[in-house]
């Protein structure tokens, strides 16, 4: 589920714990009021990292996520998920050679999540997706990727052809 305020909802204890371990920035975390005792580790993490934490009634949680939420929702900023090619190279200068997987027209979020999970397993450096005609990062992608989304940079491009040309220049050593 994507939200209007540039956030994606992660739900369920394991995806939220995985996001915490990967140090991904949170906007806020909601915990069902009756589950306070069960989620002490997440409450502690929220306080230590100044993440706004809210205790909500089950009805409020179900309004955003009907199934399998386990009484916990975490909101992650979308802008912290996507990278540009330039940002990727700035952050990964010492890691070479790079292995990129370029995806085109993967519209099913479960397929995208499964691909990310496999890319993580096979040590892919980054996944490149188009801005349009592609499944956006969503709670379904998070859940299906089993946490892999946190460890693989996602490069989002408006034009894949121009992006491939830029990658060729970067690989051949001539910087743009």
Structural commentary:
The chain is 37% helix and 22% strand. The strands form 2 sheets. A 5-stranded mixed β-sheet has the order 1-2-5-3-4. A 4-stranded parallel β-sheet has the order 6-9-8-7. The model has no long low-confidence stretch (mean pLDDT 85). 28% of the residues are buried. The chain has 176 residues and is α/β, with parallel strands linked by helices. It has 7 helices and 9 strands; from the N terminus they run ββαβαβαββαβαβαβα. Helix 2 links the parallel strand 3 (26-32) and strand 4 (53-56).
List the helices and strands and how they pair.
Blueprint: E1 2-3, E2 7-11, H1 13-21, E3 26-32, H2 40-48, E4 53-56, H3 58-64, E5 72-77, E6 82-83, H4 85-91, E7 100-102, H5 109-121, E8 126-130, H6 139-145, E9 154-157, H7 160-172
Parallel strand pairs: 3-4, 6-9, 7-8, 8-9
Antiparallel strand pairs: 1-2, 2-5, 3-5
Helix pairs in contact: 5-6
Can you describe this structure in just a few lines?
By secondary structure, the chain is an alpha/beta fold. The chain is built from 7 helices and 9 strands.
């Amino acid at each position: 589920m994507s939200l209007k305020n540039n956030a994606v909802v992660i739900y369920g204890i394991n995806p939220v714990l995985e996001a915490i371990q990967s140090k991904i920035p949170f906007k806020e975390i909601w915990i069902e009021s009756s589950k306070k005792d069960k989620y002490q580790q997440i409450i502690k993490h929220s306080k230590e990292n100044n993440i706004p934490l809210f205790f909500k009634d089950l009805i409020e949680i179900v309004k955003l996520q009907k199934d399998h939420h386990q009484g916990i929702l975490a909101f992650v900023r979308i802008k912290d998920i996507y990278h540009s090619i330039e940002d990727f190279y700035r952050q990964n200068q010492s890691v070479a050679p790079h292995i990129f997987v370029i995806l085109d027209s993967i519209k099913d979020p479960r397929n995208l999540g499964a691909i990310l999970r496999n890319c993580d397993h096979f040590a892919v450096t980054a996944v490149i997706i188009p801005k349009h005609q592609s499944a956006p990062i969503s709670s379904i992608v998070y859940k299906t990727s089993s946490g892999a989304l946190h460890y693989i940079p996602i490069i989002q491009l408006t034009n894949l052809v121009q992006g491939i040309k830029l990658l060729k220049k970067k690989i051949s050593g001539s910087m743009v």
